Amino acid sequence: MSSPGIEAFLARLYTDDAALAAFLAAPGAAAAAAGLDAAEIAALAAIDRNGLVMAARSFGAKRGRAGRHVPRAGWYGLLGPPIAKIVGKSKRLFMRRGST
Q: pTM for the whole thing?
């Protein structure tokens, strides 16, 4: 069951703490207030509430990190500091030899 109405309602639950709290307190009333039909309300009443809260927290954490970019030192930066240090030294040595 996927409709624009239920998807918009779930998106609101993921992003709005007050809406999520109202839904957890009275799922049927919150869904009805959003204009959902009886089948959608029944489906939302049976939703995994722990999973819903975990998803909302996860999305909130991702929104909090949005826009922050952590630059890396090339592909070897992904290998971790010890390996990146070794690769970085050998790269610098190679660059010096090649430039003379």
A: 0.60
